[in-house]
Amino acid sequence: MWRSGVVIHMPDGTKFPYETKDQRGYALIYETFGLSRRTSIAPHPLLICTELFLYKTGVISNQNLVFMPNGVSMQKIIIALICCLLPAFALADTVKIRDDAPGRYVVVKGDTLWDISAKFFNDPWQWPQIWGLNKDTIKDPHWIYPGDVVVLDRASGTLRIGDTKSGSDSGSDIVRLSPQIRVQDSQHGAIPSISAKIIGPFLKRPLVIDKDEMARAPAIMGTYEQRVILGNDDIAYVSDFPQDKGTLWQVYRPGKALIDPDSKELLGYEATYLGDAQVEKFDHISTLKITEAIQEMGKGDRLIQASSGIANNYVPRAPEGKIAARVISIYGGVSQAGQNAIITLNKGQRDGLENGHVLALYRKGEEVRDKGKLVSLPDVRYGLIFVFRTFDKVAYALVMQTRLPVNLLDNALTP
Predict the structure, then answer these.
(1) pTM of the entire structure?
(2) Is 244 helix (H, G, I), strand (E, B) or coil?
(3) Per residue in 30-53, pLDDT tens?
(4) DSSP-assigned letter for residue 225
(5) 300 backbone φψ class: left, alpha, beta (φ>0; ψ -120 to 50)
């Protein structure tokens, strides 16, 4: 029997009060989905789903089931519905092949994973779907080398590494990669995810320093001949310098504080990279030599252990979860940026961001007056960014595509 007082909210906003003992509700559902109420046709899956919901919530009893076939368990119905919906989910994840996509492409030095995918597909960041990678595979480096032949399999909409000796791109030359010895190749010869020329310096330099780390960092206490400005080959002195972290160090100056625009939390301080130094002698007051001065440095500037660099071979991909970040800084201290600019986000490792994640840039919709009321227009999606270095609370990304200037406080969301 129908339970009195229950209102069902349909996807289109229609509300159905189930207060009668007849099947008026079903007729209304049919009308909502534009279907004809005929007993000779199979029930629409949406109707079965609706009936299952009504049954499970107690709105109708087992005797009132109309669309579920007799003798078929509810579990089988649910499984059948899932099977029917799987193709729709698969279609949603299908990447679109470019109209001018080649059948094959020979990788050359200077290519990137992003560039190669962009030659074949409209969304080059969908690397896992393009190469048919699973969750475990995308965590590992995806080595591709100059001279490899990338072949497009139009039937499956994926790319494979092909046979360089074959002239066909019909799919017969496609081979599956397996462990093998490569004589001349190493990870250093593999092509990067994005341009190493642009982000290379940012993979080695200090970018953000948290409050506690800055307080512990050693600082230049004096200079040889009391020089105010240090340059190449000049001598600096540091007291209580740690002796267990090697002799290679980087000199930086704390920059502006990075504040989360939403929570107002202090996320860290930008680190202005000044140059490199090497310890010549460890002692109570250690002696350092400036090996490379990028900017002027002097007394009070701080040091951090030199980084050997971070790999740039992460698979371009969308985050698995929902990320909602904002642009809080643009490299160079400017308020707007264009393509190939470096930006800072207010989300980091603790929020689920990883190197290789691709986010979509959105500009908040403008407010206009309509019929005397202030109305917000929809947000505008205008570009893509590639996250190449993550810290606990912040991340750095390269602007890959944009049709508008990137502004501070613009949104960066899971595409």
Answers:
(1) 0.65
(2) coil
(3) 444 444 444 434 454 555 555 555
(4) G
(5) left
